[in-house]
Amino acid sequence: MRNLIVFVSVGVAGLVFCAARLDGQAIGVAPAPGSRPGPVSYRGLVPGVTPVAELVKRLGQPTYEGGWYDWKLLYKAKAGQFDAFHLFGGRKEGKLGTIEAATVPEGYESADKIRQRLGRPEFELILPGRQRLLDYSRLGVRFTLSSRSQTIGAAYFPHGYRRVPPGYRGHLDLSHLRQGSQPRPSSPPDPNLLAGAFELDISPVEAGWLKGKYKIHDPLKARCVVIARGGFKLAIVGADLFGLLKSEVDPIEARLRKLGISHLLLAMSHNHAAPDTIGIYGFYPKEYVGYLQARIVKGVSVALSRLVPVKTLLVGSDELSLAGARVSGLFRNARNPGIVDPQIATVQARGANGRPLVTLVHFACHVEGLEKGPKEISADFPGYLCDELARRSGAPAIYLNGAIGGMISGDTIERTHAQARKAGLRLADEVSRILALAVPSAKAEFGLRRSRIEIPVTNPRLLLFEKLHPERRVFDRGRAVSELFHVRLGDAELLTVPGELLPELSFELLEKMGGYPRMIVGLCNDELGYIIPAEDFRKGAYEESMSVGPAAGPVLLRRALELLKREDP
After folding, report:
1. What confidence score (pLDDT) does residue 197 get?
2. CB neighbours of 47 closer than 8 A, spacing ≥ 6?
């Protein structure tokens, strides 16, 4: 969701969300009272304190600058990389916010040197590809390191705030999970699957469906695949949508069951350049939502009619570099800088002739790379990504978003179509590279489990929403009811969540997922807003204003871990 703080008023139209700008989402907008700057800084610049004018005076004019949540300045670093300076309060009168730098501070060039100078980190994360993060939040800095424990990035933010509460685990090691190039199985099993894919346009076609004027820059699409074994038929749809509620997805699944579909996974990209299909900004396009439901049913039905045998199921994933404390040029964490899952995963089904039938692509990033928003409709970078992969392979590509909460967002230079296209084509290159490394699945497994969750709702805005629109968001005794899905597709493992999961929670789940690749699919069949760790739930912060409440994180984490532990029937 956008970088806005939302207030609620009740008027003639019912529920109206009035948006106001919220400066900065990183930890605090100023250092904690009484705190002193830590020993590590970027040339003495202090996030939350240093004025923008002082930043420019010290570093000169930036190489690039442009608007994102507020404004950012890019300065050249080593090897063609950039150090990014995000501002609070605007370009002229604002202050320095967060810094994400590829420039390594002197004396902190390795994990050993960092520990020698700063001691034990508050938190350490080791990723499957053995990149790591060392967190010193109270000092206002986090380091990202290569698989060889050499420092490749540093994130600076307002200091004096502890990220990990006392007594909470301070070490999470995911290096036991498979990543990157894998040995090829000597004799991969017949997947014994059928697959059929189809994509179709889901852009609005009637001017009266949306409030105000708009134009379509490029089409929104629903990309559908049906995967079948025997009488079990799973439909996976990746759609260029802002979001739908469970009450709007359930009727789609009910109609598909009449066609023989066992389960539906509707994965929404959370595209901010698509119409607001939730009504969060004051207008609910009921007619357009009905059209979307019918179009998705049609897309899946055509995919179902195209079922053919799958000869090979290719699986692969790899990590992109966290140099610069982000995946430079693609995605970053605007709330907790440096805490990013850099994995891109893919699953490709190939037919008897060896040609691709469909390609699934998964990684986590908010789809909000365009400044103009829903008045100029576009699929943003996932559209460019999927269209390019389809052009290269001759088969539809389906984008599944991940744990995008808190805010895993874009890192393009500015929010334009040119930059969105550039990001999409770069991502297509990365997926093609990973497909070249992909191996046939060593397992012929195919199955699904689904589990109901109930989350206590304490956000008064959502309680008011349910009161005014009981047919859309139905609460059971003050609890939001939704679902999780756990899918095995050969070696690949998918876990769905009904909203915007923060990566801190996703790492806890990935630790227990043994598949290759592992995919946590966000905004699947529902949109509950941000799902935040209870220990990081903040009073008055933006993401918290768009969450059902502090219970969402613990409830979902506990239920998902139970689902991952359950034995197959």
Report:
1. 98
2. 26, 31, 95, 96, 97, 98, 99, 140, 156, 157, 158, 159
